[in-house]
Amino acid sequence: MGYPVITAVPAGTNVTLIGRNGSTTWLKMRLPNGTTGWMSATYVSNSATFPSLPVLGN
Predict the structure, then answer these.
(1) pLDDT lower than 70: segments of the chain
(2) Where are the domains of the chain?
(3) Longest dimension (CA), the chain
(4) Closest Cα partner for 51 from 14, 12, 25?
(5) What CA–CA distance (Å, rounded) separates 39 from 41?
(6) Residue 38, beta-bridge partner list
């Protein structure tokens, strides 16, 4: 099962991390314009804070 792409996030964009899935492979984030969604953690560079994020469902 797949999900549609909401938007492309340009490299260097600062986002607010909201949570993660249980395996920390996906991160839920809020963009500067208020849009929220999930992004693969492989595309996010601040991995030191990932384990401290709450685990969220879809």
Answers:
(1) 1, 47-48, 58
(2) 16-45
(3) 30
(4) 25
(5) 6
(6) 28
